[in-house]
Amino acid sequence: MTGKTQQRRERLRQALIEAAERRIAQTGYRSLTARDMAAEAGCAVGAIYNIFADMDALAAAVNSRTAERLEAAVTGALAAEAGGDPKRQLVQLGRTYLAFVIDNPLLWSAIFELGARAGPDFAARREAENARLIGHVVRPLRLLLPAETEERLALVARALFAAVHGIVSLGQQRRFLGVPPSEVAAQITFIVEAFCDGVAAHRDIAPHKA
To answer: pLDDT class for 205, splitting at 50, 70, 90?
Structure first.
């Protein structure tokens, strides 16, 4: 493949990702069609499949951009709280996650709607993205629990993220028992602080072996 051909291919790839990102942000992941993407990117429908295996692969590329933006927001939140109380840092991370979801509801939903359907390459990428996100949670926890192993810290971080994600998700989707949107931020603060206090008081958080 010549340099010019590669450049054209990369320009089309970026145009398709940007078009898909706009469409998902406006009308959701399930509204993505090859015909619409070709029209927006100014290419033939067949040209899309020279770059992406299918629409799920294109959506997965958009999801990766969404994950990068979320990580940038989380990084900024931690930088703003650098040197402060680690519990406060964790609260700020939770609130940052909530703010991102409120600002990007359909892009955020697409990550979970697509799941692993985009193939093993994108599944591996998503696993790496998740690991980086959990790593941001681990850092304040390391200050709260300096005696814990990295494996245990990662376990606590995943549990805390699951708790915050659950309340954000239920509140966002207005499901049964979901917290009203106006109360979600306050409840995140409560959950994170209670979680941290509980973990600090009960260090043996791993399941007991028989």
So the answer is: very low
Residue pair 37/14 in contact (Cβ under 8 Å)? The answer is: no
Which residues touch 165 (CB under 8 Å, ≥6 apart)? 97
Give the span between the Cα atoms of 195 and 28, in whole angstroms: 33
Nearest to 143 by CA among 199, 204, 98: 199
41: exposed, middle or buried (C-beta count within 10 Å: 0-12, 13-18, 19+)? buried
Sign of the CA dihedral 166, 167, 170, 176?
positive
Q: What is the pLDDT of residues 136-151, one digit of tens each?
A: 999 999 998 898 899 9
Task: Give the 3-state secondary structure of the chain.
Answer: CCHHHHHHHHHHHHHHHHHHHHHHHHHCHHHCCHHHHHHHHCCCHHHHCCCCCCHHHHHHHHHHHHHHHHHHHHHHHHHHCCCCCHHHHHHHHHHHHHHHHHHCHHHHHHHHHHCCCCCHHHHHHHHHHHHHHHHHHHHHHHHHCCCCCHHHHHHHHHHHHHHHHHHHHHHHHCCCCCCCHHHHHHHHHHHHHHHHHHHHHCCCCCCCCC
Distance CA 189, CA 169 (A): 16
Please give the model's pTM, rounded to 2 decimal places: 0.85
